[in-house]
TrEMBL record:
Gene3D superfamilies according to UniProt: Metal-dependent hydrolases (3.20.20.140), Urease, subunit C, domain 1 (2.30.40.10)
Lineage: Bacteria, Pseudomonadati, Pseudomonadota, Betaproteobacteria, Burkholderiales
Name of the protein described by the UniProt record: N-acetylglucosamine-6-phosphate deacetylase
Residues holding substrate: 139, 215-216, 223, 246, 300-302
Class of this enzyme: hydrolase
A biological process from GO: N-acetylglucosamine catabolic process
Source organism (scientific name): Leptothrix cholodnii (strain ATCC 51168 / LMG 8142 / SP-6)
Length: 372
């Protein structure tokens, strides 16, 4: 089957919507023809809504499989998220013994080298653990350890590590942010019990963002602003989980006003795309029920979110479609330096999501290839 060379509809360009045609060639966008359109009119009159493919930088699982399962799990996860419009993702590890992390990375590497059949692009690894604070494990198993540059280099040699979450207040971590950045890794602050001052110091050393803002970090108090306060006062980028369980809509709006490059992640688990029941999250058993995923004690443990639902949730709390789209695509792509992803413009990769007027996914194209 030949890939389509043209998609008609209401197309979101970097300059706003146009009603017209998106022309594709050799897996990239060749040009866009059309007339300007108000965002509120997108999808009206039976026209398809054409958006950039979603970019998810925090994915633990989907389709009943967890990234830490290794084997064919990565392909299953990539295919499940692709059906929901995610065209590029970072495979995200859990805190675990090093041999388990190595095994997971060895399974991720082939998916990075060659996109899984029918699946999203796997851009590399988000190493969410083990370099975190045991006081803020959240749903991470208790295998936290101090980071060393040699250890990270050895893991990176197995599969490319794009993001590293660390707690900067852990002894020695602050001094390692600059060399990690020099080695090409993006450092995020997360699973941290540090103070506001610790957060500011980490940003000054080169930390670029915050992992699932508000969750598993010291909270904002007016006399002790914590990591949340450091993010809201100083961050240019942060992830947030908009499943409307992890973060109240009011807190999402506060973050949107404060952090220009705020982008959405799913923090999806093996329960994503599956019926209610028990699933694995690293070494934990988690239970999916009523749209949430939790440990036995009730702690939220990742999510069952997909980014098409994230888009709908953002619009439900008041964001216009064009801004909601940027929060699930463009800002994340910019954060990791991928100007060829997360936007519909000439020269960008032809990663496209086509939605109906009710924002349900109609078609997904990755490199101009239509995924079923």
């Amino acid at each position: 089957m030949h890939p389509p060379s043209r998609i008609d509809g209401d197309i979101l360009t970097p300059n706003g919507f146009v009603r017209g045609a998106l022309h594709l060639q050799h897996g990239r966008i060749d040009r866009i023809d059309g007339t300007p359109l108000d965002t509120a009119d997108a999808g009206q009159g039976g026209h398809a809504i054409v958006l950039p493919g979603f970019v998810d930088l925090h994915v633990h699982g989907a389709g009943g499989r967890d990234i830490m399962d290794a084997g064919e799990a990565v392909a299953t996860v990539a295919r499940t998220h692709a059906r929901h419009g995610t065209t590029a993702l970072l495979a995200t590890t859990m805190t675990a013994p090093l041999d388990e992390i190595r095994t997971a990375l060895a399974a991720i590497a082939p998916a990075v080298a060659q996109r899984p059949n029918g699946g999203a692009r796997v851009l590399g690894v988000h190493l969410e653990g083990p370099y975190i604070n045991t006081a803020r494990l959240g749903a991470q198993p208790d295998f936290a350890r101090e980071l060393t540059l040699d250890e990270v280099a050895a893991l990176h040699a197995i599969a490319p590590i794009r993001l590293i979450t660390l707690a900067p207040e852990v002894d020695g971590h602050l001094a390692l942010i600059a060399p990690l950045r020099a080695a090409g890794h993006i450092v995020q602050i997360g699973h941290s019990n540090g103070s506001y001052e610790d957060g500011v110091a980490a940003l000054r050393c080169g930390a670029a963002g915050f992992t699932h803002l508000f969750n598993a970090m010291s909270a904002l108090h007016h006399r002790a602003p914590g990591m949340v306060g450091a993010a809201l006062a100083h961050a240019q980028h942060a992830e947030i989980i908009p499943d409307l369980l992890h973060v109240h809509p009011g807190a999402i709006h506060a973050a949107l006003r404060a952090i220009p490059g705020l982008y959405c992640v799913s923090d999806a688990t093996a329960a994503t795309g599956m019926p209610d029941g028990d699933y694995r999250l690293g070494r934990h058993t988690v239970h999916k029920c009523l749209g949430g995923v939790r440990l036995a004690d009730g702690t939220l443990a990742g999510s069952a979110l997909t980014l098409d639902q994230a888009l709908r949730n953002l619009m439900a709390i008041g964001l216009p479609l064009d801004e909601a789209s940027r929060r699930v695509s463009t800002h994340a792509a910019d954060y990791i330096g991928r100007s060829d992803l997360g936007r519909l413009q000439a020269g960008a990769l032809a990663d496209v999501v086509v939605l109906d007027a009710d924002l349900s996914v109609r078609r997904v194209l990755i490199g101009a290839e239509e995924e079923s």
